[in-house]
Specification:
alpha+beta; 116 residues; two-stranded antiparallel ribbon
Length: 116
């Protein structure tokens, strides 16, 4: 199972900080590239910009929670929940597994050479 994670493209989990405007206030949000892609996909499905989606999510989060929560964590959980609810999480997992299996080398023990 570790291969699924270790062999992931490092660009997916590389953090990227972006400036967004929420109700006229510019703020920075730092998320992994994969999370930015999922937010972009959600925004596309909602027929809005990623910034508009983030503003809408911010409004919903602050309406339902009076205290200030970690908004970046809220966005990550929103992305994962979206993937689960849409069924994409299972399909993505299956795709990654297939790729990992294709990259697995079958080497006979007698053919293996180990450096000392």
């Amino acid at each position: 199972m570790c291969k699924l994670y270790v062999q992931a493209d490092p660009l997916q989990y590389e953090p990227r900080q972006r400036s967004v405007r929420i109700h006229g206030v510019i703020t920075s949000i730092r998320l992994e590239n994969l999370m930015w892609r999922v937010l972009s996909d959600i925004a596309s499905e909602q027929k809005c910009t990623t910034n508009a989606l983030i503003t809408k999510l911010y409004d919903e989060a602050t309406t339902h929670r009076s205290e200030s929560a970690n908004f970046a964590s809220f966005l990550r959980v929103t992305c994962v929940r979206h993937l689960i609810d849409s069924g994409r999480l299972g399909r993505e997992r299956d795709r990654v597994r297939r790729e990992a299996e294709e990259e697995t080398w079958d080497v006979e023990e007698s053919q293996a050479v180990f450096a000392h």
